[in-house]
Amino acid sequence: MTSLPERTERKMGLVIDLDICVGCHACAVSCKEWNTQGYGAPLSDQDPYGADPSGTWLNRIHSFEIQPEGAPAQIVHFPKSCLHCEDAPCVTVCPTGASYKRVQDGIVLVNEDACMGCGLCAWACPYGARELDRAEGVMKKCTLCVDRIYNDNIPEEDRVPACVRSCPAGARHFGDFRDPASAVNRMVQDRGGMDLMPEQETRPVNKYLPPRIRDRHATAPETVRLASLAEPEATGFLGWLDRALGRLG
Amino acid sequence: MHPAPSIIVFTVLSGLGLGMVFWVGLGAGPDQGAARWWITLLALGFAAAGGAASTGHLARPDRAWRAFSQWRSSWLSREACLMVAALGAFALYAAIWMLGGTRYWLLGWLSSVLALATVYATAMIYAQLRTVPRWSLAPTPQMFLALSAVGGLLGVGAAAALGGASAPSGWVALGIALAAGVAVWWQTVAAGAGRRASGSDIGTATGLGRLGRVRLFEPPHTGRNYLLDEMAFRVARGRAFQLRRIGAVLGFLVPLALALLAWALGGWLLVPALISHVAGVLALRWLFFAEAEHVQAFYYGMR
């Protein structure tokens, strides 16, 4: 049944630190690399080397500009993937029972053998986290690398989602949100971790850490005189020379 | 949202067929000879054609049978189950009616209720989606039900005329006027329901809104993808206005005029009225999809 579980035993998910992400897209690339070869159907591309390439990705990196009041603009790189919501609307709309949320760890998965590719779950998701694979005709989404995190055949340090393992900046963290003492929960508490679109009432498990407020320079004058910037007022010998040259006209 | 022809044809035709089932089940339609056959044939034909069109939207239609399994949680599954039940009950009712000439009113009422419930389930597929504010409106189910009912009434009238029986053109005219009122009601509410009517915007989507004004600096990819094709469809505003006029004229004004004329000139005018109505509702249903905006497009910088 595509009803949601009352409570999941564990609540596995990601913390994404928007203060640290440098927008290198390594997580998106390693996600595609891992997930095109293991769990489920491959992540297909259409016209990959042609004029109009497109394809299925489970993780995409947007970049936004924040323009604060009276301060310089700030760029924020923003990785976006499935948030494994506690009230996942994508699961309950599924007519075939292909979409489900696991009781043991809260991961939202698609049984690709049962998916008929109607696309209603993608409509129900506010985050654009589900993409219909155009070669296979089934819905693809982030699995939290379910075939890595419990995999005894790979070294222990690799038993995290591929995006977390590959992030060169340490902007992505994986853990159990059910455990109050977990590192991910501490980060969320210390840094004010936030939900995306809380008004959609999906109760996302994944949390985003907001970028820290930048240091601000002493307030610049409203109108900056470019001439004075190009020639800062000189003192000492240079000042005397400047005044002497000025007197020559 | 992407206006897929398969879903537009499906919702319009199945709504029409189920509307006919609704009225015939309640006892409408003449009992004489050929008219019964026309009515049954058209009702089941429209509903079946709609059902066939719906599978055109599936990437894996071979698995469509699985959609009957999740009726406890999914409106789409409920729609599929109710549709089969309604058409099954009606086929039995109509078979007895056509061959034996008697109407089993209990079976008729059952198929009416199931037909109504099917159209309601169809509407709820859209009305349940908080992500598409233009669909999750209070009058969305009423709009679907009204259009289905008036289409069914026109269908029964036209089929009766085709079968050589007298058609209830006065009731048809009244029905068209009432349905037009519901359509205007929905349109009035929908007019203000853009992407931001859900309370979401680029600030809540990114969580960055409290730090300042947010805009998309760089999209994640330069080409198109499923998300943009499916949920960021852009309709040319000028064309939307003209289509809405076409929908109003063909869907309601022309059928209303023809139904009133049919009162004086004969029921056969309900046949062109039905054709005009279907064409108008197809245009309106296209707009129902094309003008609907999905909140995920905030991540692509759309406002």
Characterization of the model:
The complex is a heterodimer of chains A (249) and B (303). Chain A has 249 residues and is α+β, with helices and mostly antiparallel strands. Chain A has a single domain (12-209), classed as Alpha-Beta Plaits. Helices cover 22% and strands 17% of the residues of chain A. Chain A has helices at residues 26-35, 89-92, 120-124, 146-149, 162-166, 183-191, 226-230, 236-247, and strands at 12-17, 45-46, 54-55, 60-67, 74-80, 99-101, 108-110, 131-132, 139-140, 172-176, 207-209. In chain A, the strands form 5 sheets. A 3-stranded mixed sheet of chain A has the order 10-1-11. In chain A, strand 2 and strand 3 (54-55) form a beta hairpin. The model of chain A has no long low-confidence stretch (mean pLDDT 92). Chain B has 303 residues and is an all-alpha fold. Chain B has a single domain, classed as Formate dehydrogenase/DMSO reductase fold. Chain B is 66% helix and 2% strand. Chain B is globular. Chain B starts with a helix and ends in a 13-residue tail after the last helix. Chains A and B meet through strand 3, strand 4, strand 5, helix 3 and strand 8 of A and helix 3, helix 7, strand 1 and helix 8 of B. Strand 4 of chain A pairs antiparallel with strand 1 (213-218) of chain B, so a sheet runs across the interface.
Describe the sheet with the most strands of chain B: none
Gap between N and C termini of chain B: 14 Å
Principal-axes geometry of chain A comes out as elongated
For this structure, the CATH topology of chain B is Formate dehydrogenase/DMSO reductase fold
Segments of chain B where pLDDT lies below 50 for 5+ residues? none
pLDDT < 50 stretches of chain A: none
Largest interface: A-B, 67 and 58 residues
**CATH class bucket of chain B:** Mainly Alpha
Q: Helix count of chain B?
A: 10
CATH top level of chain A is Alpha Beta
Q: Averaging pLDDT over every residue of chain A, what do you get?
A: 92
Overall body shape of chain B: globular
Order of helices and strands of chain B: HHHHHHHEHHH
Q: Proportion of β residues of chain A? A: 15-25%
DSSP strand tally of chain A: 11
List the secondary-structure elements of chain A in sequence, H or E: EHEEEEHEEHEEHHEHEHH
How would you describe the oligomerization state of the chains in this entry?
heterodimer
Percent helix of chain B, as a range, is 55-70%
Transmembrane segments (chain B): 7-25, 37-59, 80-100, 106-129, 141-162, 168-186, 246-263, 269-288
Protein name (chain B): Dimethyl sulfoxide reductase anchor subunit
Keywords (chain B): Membrane, Transmembrane, Transmembrane helix
InterPro entries (chain B): DmsC
